[in-house]
């Protein structure tokens, strides 16, 4: 007598009469079958118990036996066999009751039960299935039939087990992934949201269920996805519009958060290859990416010392405002401002103090850039500019004087300056209405020229000019 495991019921030694039972057709080693499937045989009649035991052993199965329902319940729970062959008529707990208890217990509910019984009326068979059996074999036993039915049940169990395993694995992946995953119905409403999607969207799954994806989107994406899903709803016509094209694949979208904020995400939408017209939406949070992108863009356009716009941003802005002034025939003004005797300041007080001085000048200039379209920038060194779209000569001259006076009022000492005891600036202002025939360089050259003239005239002053350069003047100025 062999003992499969300590504490388990011993497998019954097959009576000699059955030792010669011929193996059934088909092999228990079929690829789809679990290796050495374990089968629990429950029968109180030694003859049929022995026959079944012998037959199953002959097929390579591990076999366990029990002669009562109570014992079968205990063994099933501990051994977790792949299949139970259960007699209907048993002392004490009968087969039907035993089967019901097996099915009621979550630990044994999934184990398939085949009734093996001499009671083979239709009523008995129906009662067996009603009790939860997977199959019913009538006695007297026909080995080929028994083996085939056993094999079929083991195959089905193996398939359902691997399905369950697969589903468990998939669910672990989906639940644990960093990307948000939404399952959408044909109407674009959310059917499932994984934990990462809950985090991305700021709602719990229960709050998301049934909501249209489009309702969570901001801007034009909302309308695009609404249209996309109305086209994909059942009975809908397919369309090849651009809105639909924009919704397929990956798209950058803004998602509305419960607190009213917006979050930038990459949204990838793909239709599932199933008849249910379901879609999977993947959400990848790109907030940090966007923030650093914006910070980089800002940094690329800002002067690191003073924080105001740099020359690059000024050039871009001048180009844009120049074109706008040409179209609108409105005056465009530019101030060019240079710190007087700054070399003397630096030489006496040091470069660090010089930097602070430039920061103070930049803040004063920035404080005068009042309109949204005005742009204060550091052009280079101790030279600054202020671009004033839609500003005529008089207004630009007035503003230039106000800036000059405010900088003088800062009373930043410049002891070596022959012009003043304090830091001062010279400002050149140029204003004109550019036409298509004018050269964009002429505005800066005119303002710069005026600034140098202001220096030459004694510094700490404004010199404002009106009108553009002629072609000849421009060429001469560029040649200097
Ligand atoms: N501290 C500091 N100094 C700078 C910076 N950029 C330029 N400078 C200095 O600014 C000074 C400019 O000197 P100059 O071009 O001779 O002009 P200036 O002394 O201001 O004389 P005028 O313009 O004729 O009144 C130089 O000493 C530069 O080193 C900067 O970022 N920080």
Automatic annotation (TrEMBL):
<keyword id="KW-0548">Nucleotidyltransferase</keyword>
<dbReference type="InterPro" id="IPR029787">
    <property type="entry name" value="Nucleotide_cyclase"/>
</dbReference>
<dbReference type="GO" id="GO:0052621">
    <property type="term" value="F:diguanylate cyclase activity"/>
</dbReference>
<dbReference type="InterPro" id="IPR013656">
    <property type="entry name" value="PAS_4"/>
</dbReference>
<dbReference type="InterPro" id="IPR043128">
    <property type="entry name" value="Rev_trsase/Diguanyl_cyclase"/>
</dbReference>
<feature type="modified residue" description="4-aspartylphosphate">
    <location>
        <position position="87"/>
    </location>
</feature>
<keyword id="KW-0808">Transferase</keyword>
<dbReference type="InterPro" id="IPR035965">
    <property type="entry name" value="PAS-like_dom_sf"/>
</dbReference>
<protein>
    <recommendedName>
        <fullName>diguanylate cyclase</fullName>
        <ecNumber>2.7.7.65</ecNumber>
    </recommendedName>
</protein>
<feature type="domain" description="PAS">
    <location>
        <begin position="166"/>
        <end position="211"/>
    </location>
</feature>
<dbReference type="InterPro" id="IPR050469">
    <property type="entry name" value="Diguanylate_Cyclase"/>
</dbReference>
<keyword id="KW-0597">Phosphoprotein</keyword>
<dbReference type="InterPro" id="IPR000014">
    <property type="entry name" value="PAS"/>
</dbReference>
<feature type="domain" description="GGDEF">
    <location>
        <begin position="330"/>
        <end position="467"/>
    </location>
</feature>
<dbReference type="InterPro" id="IPR001789">
    <property type="entry name" value="Sig_transdc_resp-reg_receiver"/>
</dbReference>
<dbReference type="InterPro" id="IPR000160">
    <property type="entry name" value="GGDEF_dom"/>
</dbReference>
<dbReference type="Pfam" id="PF00990">
    <property type="entry name" value="GGDEF"/>
</dbReference>
<dbReference type="Pfam" id="PF08448">
    <property type="entry name" value="PAS_4"/>
</dbReference>
<feature type="domain" description="Response regulatory">
    <location>
        <begin position="38"/>
        <end position="154"/>
    </location>
</feature>
<dbReference type="InterPro" id="IPR011006">
    <property type="entry name" value="CheY-like_superfamily"/>
</dbReference>
<dbReference type="Pfam" id="PF00072">
    <property type="entry name" value="Response_reg"/>
</dbReference>
């Amino acid at each position: 007598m062999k003992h499969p495991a300590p504490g388990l019921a011993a497998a019954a030694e097959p009576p000699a009469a059955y030792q010669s039972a011929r193996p059934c057709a088909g092999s228990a080693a079929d690829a789809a079958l679990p290796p050495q499937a374990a089968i629990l045989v429950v029968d109180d009649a030694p003859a049929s118990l022995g026959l079944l035991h012998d037959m199953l052993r002959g097929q390579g199965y591990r076999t366990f036996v029990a002669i009562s329902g109570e014992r079968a319940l205990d063994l099933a729970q501990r051994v977790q066999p792949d299949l139970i062959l259960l007699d209907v008529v048993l002392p004490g707990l009968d087969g039907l009751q035993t089967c019901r208890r097996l099915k009621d217990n979550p630990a044994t509910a999934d184990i398939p039960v085949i009734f093996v019984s001499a009671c083979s009326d239709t009523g008995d068979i129906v009662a067996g299935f009603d009790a939860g059996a997977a199959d019913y074999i009538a006695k007297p036993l026909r080995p080929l039939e028994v083996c085939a039915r056993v094999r079929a049940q083991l195959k089905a169990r193996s398939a359902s087990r691997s399905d369950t395993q697969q589903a468990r694995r998939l669910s672990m992946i989906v639940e644990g992934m960093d990307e948000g995953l939404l399952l959408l119905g044909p109407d674009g409403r959310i059917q499932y949201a994984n934990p990462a999607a809950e985090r991305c969207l700021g709602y719990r799954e229960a709050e998301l269920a049934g909501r249209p994806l489009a309702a969570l989107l901001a801007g034009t994406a909302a309308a695009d996805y609404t249209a996309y899903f109305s086209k994909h709803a059942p009975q809908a016509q397919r369309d090849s519009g651009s809105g639909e094209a924009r919704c397929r694949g990956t798209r950058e979208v803004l998602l509305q958060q419960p607190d009213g904020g917006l979050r930038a995400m990459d949204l990838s939408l793909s239709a599932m290859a199933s008849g249910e017209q379901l879609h999977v939406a993947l959400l990848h949070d790109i907030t940090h990416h966007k923030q650093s992108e914006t910070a980089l863009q800002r940094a690329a356009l800002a002067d690191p010392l003073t924080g105001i716009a740099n020359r690059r941003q000024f050039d871009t802005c001048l180009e844009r405002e120049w074109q706008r002034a040409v179209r609108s025939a409105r005056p465009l003004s530019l101030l060019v401002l240079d710190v007087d005797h700054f070399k003397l300041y630096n030489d006496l007080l040091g470069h660090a103090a010089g930097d602070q001085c430039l920061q103070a000048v930049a803040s004063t200039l920035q404080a005068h850039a009042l309109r949204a379209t005005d742009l204060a920038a550091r052009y280079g060194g101790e030279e600054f500019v202020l671009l004033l779209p839609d500003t005529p000569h008089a207004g630009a001259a007035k503003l230039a004087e106000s800036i000059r006076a405010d900088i003088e009022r800062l009373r930043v000492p410049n002891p070596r300056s022959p012009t003043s005891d304090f830091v001062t600036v010279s400002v050149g202002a140029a204003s004109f209405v550019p036409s298509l025939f004018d050269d964009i360089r002429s505005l800066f050259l005119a303002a710069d020229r005026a600034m140098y003239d202001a220096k030459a005239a004694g510094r700490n002053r404004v010199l404002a000019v009106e009108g553009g350069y002629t072609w000849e003047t421009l060429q001469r100025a560029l040649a200097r």
